[in-house]
């Protein structure tokens, strides 16, 4: 008997295969073997004009035989020198730890072009500049009395305590807990404040006692009151002061858990309350049965089934690496994940940057900086170099550099509460380049407290560069930028955007005026986790005037390259393998103009896109010469079909890209019809998975060299070239 299958049933079967079965047959793309390998540089041989040693004395003369004891003393001596006829001054720091509470170099500490000043390590041992407070293993004692009874029985003999006052710290040194998260609303309540003191053990950030344990989340139940949601705050949250908090149901297990806590005083919740790219926190105001009320409203409102966790809960001190500080009594409680005597124990106290430099022509070399609630190095000067330094275990961002001709190179950065390297400089009016660079750095495990929009590298200003860096292991973006003539090249980016879907490893967006930026020769692979399906390169919300070429994107679970409705975008010669869609180019900007109910409205008459454009230098001679396409943008709403009408995705070129997506029907991705009308999308090679070995014979071994005489070669133009894989990454 023959069964007749309807066309509808066939369509359903095909859809099921596309969503469920097909991805299982797709072999993950191997890590490229041909990437540049980092080579450990030879040890530096230096001799100093002055020496500093932990065993020295500030009464000495700073010679090798009689070194100073503090960096501050050496700095002051160098400050007083006449630098007119010298060719450089070097201060050598001998191995050991130097305790500082914010080391500041002012304009008076500047070198000159002919006489730069260098502060560097001397000898083989590590030079540590520590703004934190060291604790000793002998300081810790077993927990007893009423506090022990609040702990779970199975961990009472594993948790230790230390009286910080007896060690020399006052309650005021520890600071209060203030709201964390890039989208927290504490400022609406007058409660914004600095990062709280944290504990680091064995060179790792310990976890402030939380439920669920590190990495885990619970999810909101039914929303009872959405304080800043659309129905309650139609004008948006920006203009509000001290709005009521949110109220939502907790699940049965969480309800039982919160009922077991002795107090809710200073217990906090942290979550992605509406979007998975917007994290924020609030004190818990009350718990009544299964109803939890927050003290602060969430930035974008709150919705059901979003992830959050509790922190600063003494009773949840139940897993190795967790700690809790009784900030009233000055007692630290700690459940070590190793023998307490095996690793250094450091608590962050200082709010100052470890180093602040307003001095020009200064180099910091081969130093380790750690232990602050603030930032590692803050530079507001020109011609400053930070080379071969390690910046770790801090509450803020590792390096922030504002100025011209600054260089952050060959550094390792990890365990920051916020970002990695932020660079700003140059002049947007004249398009004078800042010529500052983040180069050949290893940045990993950053954004550990603030979970979104804390980039491994942030480029701002004009004419600055992010090159040859390796970035990995972070919940959100690796690189973000805003400015003109910025260059992002030869970076290796992997295992990032681990906890966000609507995000990209390289991200910028939201305006027409950021012309002249180039993203080239970057290798991006292994993004996202679980249900999070982020993008590789994300040009969000109308970003225009960008050039993206020569990049290799592997196993990016969302769109390899996401273009959010912008214009004048050049996307060429990229190789995208293993994304659900290779290239997605939508038309959100013009659609928002044509449809008042469409979600994106930034370019409607009087909207922010026009305000930003008209207040920029786009009609000056300098900008017209640099960006002629931008200077011709039209704001004539009576002529919306004109390709020069700003909202139209016009004059872009998407060509010579190779795409092998995780789709059972090979295609380039998704190209909106408006894009097809106003831009050029052609000569892209869409590769069927079954032919991958004819296209890339070495694919299985991680060799992404393209066989340009393969069957699909005719789809590309003669302009296609092999990617410079051996130059991508650190060197």
Commentary on this structure:
The structure is a single chain. The protein has 731 residues and is mainly beta. Among the domains are: 11-41 and 497-701 and 709-731, no CATH class; 133-349, no CATH class. 11% of the residues lie in helices and 30% in strands. It has a 25-stranded parallel sheet that branches. A hairpin with a 2-residue loop joins strand 16 and strand 17. The protein is globular.
From the alpha-carbon coordinates, what is the Rg to the nearest angstrom?
Answer: 28 Å
H/I helix tally: 12
Biggest pleated sheet: 25 strands, parallel
Percent in strands: 25-35%
What is the rounded distance between the termini? 67 Å
Find the count of extended strands (DSSP E, 2+ residues). Answer: 54
Structural class: mainly beta
| Fraction of helical residues | 10-25%
| Mean pLDDT figure | 93
Bulk shape: globular
Low-pLDDT runs of 5+ residues are: 9-25, 231-235
């Amino acid at each position: 008997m023959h069964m007749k299958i309807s066309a509808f049933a066939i369509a359903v079967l095909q859809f099921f295969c596309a969503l469920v079965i097909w991805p299982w047959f797709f072999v993950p793309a191997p890590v490229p073997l041909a990437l540049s390998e980092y080579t450990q540089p030879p040890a530096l041989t230096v001799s100093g004009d002055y020496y500093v040693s932990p065993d020295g004395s500030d009464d000495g003369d700073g010679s090798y035989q009689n070194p100073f004891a503090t960096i501050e003393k050496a700095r002051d001596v160098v400050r007083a020198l006449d630098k007119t006829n010298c060719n450089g001054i070097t201060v050598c720091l001998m191995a050991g730890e130097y305790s500082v509470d914010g080391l500041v170099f002012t304009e008076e500490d500047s070198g000159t072009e002919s006489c730069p000043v260098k502060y560097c390590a001397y000898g083989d041992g590590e030079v540590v500049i520590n703004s934190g407070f060291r604790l000793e293993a002998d300081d810790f004692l077993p927990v007893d009395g009423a506090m022990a009874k609040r702990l779970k029985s199975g961990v009472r003999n594993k948790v230790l305590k230390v009286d910080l006052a007896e060690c020399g710290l006052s309650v005021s040194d520890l600071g209060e807990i203030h709201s964390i998260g890039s989208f927290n609303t504490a400022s609406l309540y007058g409660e914004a404040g600095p990062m709280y003191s944290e504990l680091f053990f064995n060179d790792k950030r310990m976890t402030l006692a939380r439920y669920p344990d590190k990495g885990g989340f619970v999810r909101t139940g039914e929303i009872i009151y959405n304080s800043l949601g659309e129905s309650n705050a139609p004008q948006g949250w920006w203009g509000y002061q001290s709005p009521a908090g949110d109220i939502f149901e907790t699940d049965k297990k969480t309800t039982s858990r919160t009922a077991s806590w002795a107090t809710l005083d200073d217990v906090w919740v942290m979550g992605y309350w509406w979007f998975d790219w917007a994290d924020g926190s609030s004190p818990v105001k009350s718990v009544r049965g299964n109803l939890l009320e927050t003290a602060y409203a969430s930035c974008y409102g709150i919705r059901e089934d979003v992830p959050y966790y509790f922190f600063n809960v003494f009773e949840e001190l139940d897993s190795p690496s967790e700690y809790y500080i009784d900030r009233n009594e000055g007692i630290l409680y700690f459940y070590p994940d190793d023998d307490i005597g095996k690793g250094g124990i450091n608590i962050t106290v200082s709010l100052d940057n470890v180093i602040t430099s307003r001095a020009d022509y200064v180099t910091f070399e081969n130093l380790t900086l750690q232990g602050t609630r603030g930032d590692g190095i803050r530079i507001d000067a020109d011609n400053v170099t930070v080379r071969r330094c390690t910046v770790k275990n801090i509450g803020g961002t590792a390096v922030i550099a504002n100025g011209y001709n600054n260089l952050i190179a060959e550094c390792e950065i990890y365990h920051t509460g916020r970002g990695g390297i932020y660079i700003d400089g140059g002049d947007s009016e004249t398009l004078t380049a800042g010529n500052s660079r983040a180069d050949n750095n290893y940045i990993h495990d950053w954004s550990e407290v603030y979970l979104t929009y804390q980039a491994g590298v942030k480029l701002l200003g004009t004419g600055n560069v992010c090159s040859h860096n390796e970035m990995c292991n972070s919940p959100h973006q690796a690189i973000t930028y805003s400015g003109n003539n910025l260059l992002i090249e030869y970076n290796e980016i992997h295992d990032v955007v681990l906890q966000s879907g609507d995000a990209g490893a390289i991200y910028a967006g939201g305006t027409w005026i950021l012309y002249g930026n180039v993203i080239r020769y970057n290798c991006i692979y292994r993004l996202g986790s679980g249900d999070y399906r982020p993008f590789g390169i994300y040009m969000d919300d109308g970003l225009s005037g960008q050039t993206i070429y020569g990049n290799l994107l592997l196993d990016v679970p969302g769109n390899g390259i996401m273009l959010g409705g912008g214009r004048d975008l050049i996307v060429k010669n990229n190789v995208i393998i293993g994304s659900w869609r290779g290239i997605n180019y939508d038309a959100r900007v013009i659609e928002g103009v044509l449809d008042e109910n469409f979600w994106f409205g930034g370019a409607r008459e009087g909207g922010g896109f026009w305000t930003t454009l008209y207040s920029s230098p786009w009609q000056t001679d300098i900008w017209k010469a640099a960006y002629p396409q931008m200077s011709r943008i039209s704001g004539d709403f009576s002529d919306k079909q004109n390709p020069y009408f700003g909202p139209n995705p016009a004059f872009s070129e998407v060509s010579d890209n190779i795409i092998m997506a995780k789709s059972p029907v090979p295609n380039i991705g998704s190209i909106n019809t408006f894009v097809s009308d106003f831009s050029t999308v052609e000569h892209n090679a869409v590769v069927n998975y079954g032919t991958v070995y004819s296209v890339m014979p070495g694919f299985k071994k991680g060799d992404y060299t393209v066989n340009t005489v393969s069957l699909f070669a005719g789809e590309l133009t003669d302009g296609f070239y092999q990617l410079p894989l051996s130059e991508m990454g650190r060197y």
